[in-house]
Structures are given as C-alpha cells and as structure tokens.
Amino acid sequence: MLKFVKVSIRQNLKRKMLPVNGGEYVAQLTSRGKRKAAARTEERVRLRLDQQERDLDLEIQCQAMQEMLGELEESRSRYARLYDYSPVRFATFDDKGLISDVNLAGAALLGKERSLLIGSPMATFVDKDSVKPFFDHLRSCRLTGKQVITDLILSPKNAAPFPALIISFPPPGAGDYGLQYMSIIVDITERKFMEKELLRLESLNLIGEMAAGIAHEVRNPMTIVRGFIQLFTRKREFTPYEAQLNLMITELDRANAIITEYLSLAKNKPLNKSPHSLNRIVEGLMPLMESDALHSQKWIVSQLSDNIPELFLDIQEMRQLILNFVRNGLEAMLSGERLTIGTFAKGHQVVLFIQDQGTGIPPEVMSKLGTPFFTTKANGTGLGLSICYSIAHRHNAQIDVKTGDSGTTFSVNFQRP
Ligand code: ADP
Ligand code: MG
After folding, report:
1. Distances in whole angstroms, Cα of residue 122 to Cα of each of 91, 132, 142, 169, 223
2. What is the residue range of 160's domain?
3. Going by CA atoms, what residue is nearest to atom 11 of ligand 1?
4. Residues 25-59: pLDDT tens digits?
5. Pair 74, 109 in one domain
6. Which residues lie with the beta carbon below 6 Å from any ligand 1 atom?
C-alpha cells in the first residue's frame, strides 16, 4: 500500500517537473558556454528535484508511520477494553505472587479497587489453608511452563470465602521481563454446590435401593423375636426377668421405628399427590406438636399466610417432613424458647418455613446436612433431614437453610401449580 502511494506521488511529481527540465532551458541555450551553464542549471534542477523527492519520501514515510501508530493505539485500546470489561476474571502475578495487573471483573471478585490491588500480595486474598497451594501452583507453572489448574478457597475483602479455580500459564517470552503468570480466576461456588447435591442425591438413591431389601431381611425376624419375648413376659418362670424383657421389647420397637423411617427413603415409593392446603396440614399437626413442645416447656407458634394456593402434595409425606423439621428445631432449643412454623407466597413459589431459636448449626455440621445417618445426637438416627430432602425432592421443592447464633430457619420452597 505504502509502495503504491509512493510510486503514484513520485510519478505525479515528475509529470509536474518535466516541462521545467526538458522544455524551457535546453531549447533556449545552444552555445558551448551557454550549454555549460545550461548543464549546471540542469544539474541544480535535478538536485533540487532529488531533494524534493527525498523530502516527499520522508513525509510519506512519516504519514504512514503515524497511521500505523494510530491503528496500533486503536487496537491496543480495543484489547484493553476487552480485557478491562471482560466478564472473565483476569489477573497477572509476578513470581513473588504480587498482583501486577487485574481486570475490573477480577478486582470486583477480590472486593477491592483495581488501583489498590496492583502490587498487593495475592496471598492476602486467599484463605490461610490455600496459601501454600497458591504458591505451589505458581511454582509448578514455572517448572512445567504449562497451564496449571488449582482449586483454592478465596477470601475476598468484606465477603465470605468461596471456592475458586485458578488457571495460570506463563505467557510466551515472560522470562525476558521477569517471570509473570497470567491467570484466570473462576468462582466455582455453584459447581461445588451441585457436586455436593449430586453426591447427596446419589447416597439417597443408594439408601433407597437398599431400603426395600432391608424391609424383608430385618423386619420379619424382628417381628418373630418380639412375639416370643412378649410370650415369655406372660410366663411365670420369666417373671424375674420381666424388666429386661420389657426393655428388649422397647429396644426392638425403637429399631422398628428406625426402619420405618428408613423405608420412607425408598426410591420408588409411590406418591399419592392431590391438592392440599399446606396451612390445613400444619393446623392439623399443631395439637400434636404443641404437646410435644410443652413437654419440655417450649413454645410453638404458627404464622400462616391466607393467600397461598393449594399444592399437589402427598399428605403423609408432608406431615412427616413438618414433624422432622419441628422435632429437630425443638431438640436444638432450650426451655422457654419458641419455634415458629409458617407459610407465605413469594413470586412463583410457596414457602413453608420452620424457624427455631436454637443453638444454630456449626459449619462442619452444615456441610453434612442431609447425609443419611449423620447425627450429632447421642440417640439420633441421622435420618430425619435425609427424609426431608428426599420428600422435598419428590415434590420438586428446594430446601434452604439459614443459621446463626440466634437460631435456624429451614425453608421448603414449592413451585406454584
Ligand atoms: P437426628 O435428628 O437424628 O440427629 P437429622 O437428620 O434430623 O438427624 O439431623 C442431623 C443433624 O443435623 C442433627 O444431629 C443436628 O446436629 C443437625 N440439625 C438438624 N436440624 C437442626 C436444627 N434445627 N438446629 C440445630 N442443628 C440441627
Ligand atoms: Mg432429627
């Protein structure tokens, strides 16, 4: 392009100068002296023309250079905009783990303004258990010269820690300017949640499959043993052992109750869904729950919203779900405390909530909620919440948990029909 411009300008120039060069001077001057003078004049004209041509060349080169610089600047700012405003979180680290650059999304993720982040150690935004993995990540990136991916827990300013994936690679020729690592940071909170949920559902499935078999294998012999023990209690020769025999029956009944709960996790249990009012179900259970609560001087109050529609529910399962949540709530509270059970409509959802004033759920327990057989209680079965999750799942409802020092709220979010 540049060449073409130069050639065309040069031709233009020559066309302009030819009459001066050939026409006027050479035709008029004929004698020898005059020819010499003419030759000098011609030489001067030629030199001037050369000079003009060189000046022109320079000017053209200068203009082309400016154009290229402009294009370069434009493409640079296009890439800078792309980098700055990309939803992907980019960051560059030096070999000491200091942030040398970060885009706006990356800065937002770390919870600080970009200008304040540059030069800060990335380790201050990483959970203390993830600091070593972070430096190991940079080291293995340097040693292999390849892309490295590591799971970390990031701890942004003024926000809760969250799981993240950091993908780094040394850019080509990075060593020439001191080692730099270009990284992408991905928030994987959602993915971790899904993985956990999947694991929980898988364990529920497994339990469900096992449940049907257990019913036959364990319950029948137990019924026979219980029958014989009952028979013995009526025989005079067993009178000295009456207390022990009664204890055996109580324990067998408890085992049977556990199995009944366990069986309700069965995967292919047929559902009997029909339109029901959640409020009526709660009201129907109130006397039972109140007497349970009053037994240990605790209170149950209801907050039932009038404008919630009927839902397609299996009434037996709903009763069980409510009782399980309420029992857990009561067990977590001290005498004199209050448990609230309520309903309300929220957008396309109908929410049933059970709020207690108990001790709250510590994080290590939170992460295991709903795992079959997980219990922190001496006499617990660890099946109550598993059953609740399984019932909610069968009703296409989601369970949310909010917990703190002042208590725990379990919400079951149903879709409006
Ligand atoms: P269990 O009640 O037999 O222990 P669950 O599955 O019902 O089994 O509950 C599992 C665990 O979850 C409990 O042992 C308890 O540590 C915790 N938990 C459940 N609900 C609450 C609650 N409302 N407040 C505090 N902790 C709770
Ligand atoms: Mg329980």
Report:
1. 10, 12, 17, 16, 64
2. 89-187
3. 375
4. 444 545 677 778 888 888 898 999 999 999 999 99
5. no
6. 324, 328-329, 332, 356, 358-359, 361, 365, 369, 374-377, 380-386, 408
